[in-house]
Amino acid sequence: MKAPAPPRPGVILFDLLSALLDSWSLWDDIAGGRGSGRRWRMEYLNLTYAAGAYVPYLDLVAASAKGVGLPAAAAHELDARWDELAPWPGAARVLRGLAADRPLGVVTNCSEAMGQRAADLVGAPFDAVVTAESAGFYKPDARIYAAGAKAMHAAPDEVLFVAGSPFDVVGASAAGLAVVWHNPALLASPAAEAAALSVFDDLRELALLLA
Hints:
CATH superfamily of the largest domain: HAD superfamily/HAD-like
Radius of gyration: 16 Å
Number of domains: 2
CATH topology of the largest domain: Rossmann fold
CATH class of the largest domain: Alpha Beta
Mean pLDDT: 94
Helix content: 40-55%
């Protein structure tokens, strides 16, 4: 874990599909193993974070599957099995505790329907769920982070963003948000580690940081 601890925020926004939900395991299972699943997911992240303006989420999922030699139909399987996504250990309990004295929200790179479905799986209260489709832009475009702050009736400097990927750390930092990185997938990124105020692999450490 990296110090120092972030300032006590008025609002917390979370990445959803990596910071709160273990989407990695589902992608791995659909791809037939961890190696092919990781290659698919990283190709998807590269395509998505280069997209800018919103295009249909499942189109990007299908294109990234084809890009690493998987069938494009993997995107349809992901959609069909979306409700199998599981929160990281302790996520619901940590977020319910944090929600007792501050509003929580989500900024996520997916469609509106899939974002709402995924947020419901966390088991915690959210005051806003902002998706790439509703914002019109994919992260790391600054406009989706701004839409998240606006949905929470907060200025960017009043928000702590909990990122789940290295792209998200750098993007949210560039958009003026204070950022910590929940990295249970143990991804390596010196740039993200340098930009994040704290890096941890267990969400329960977030509660300790903000106590």
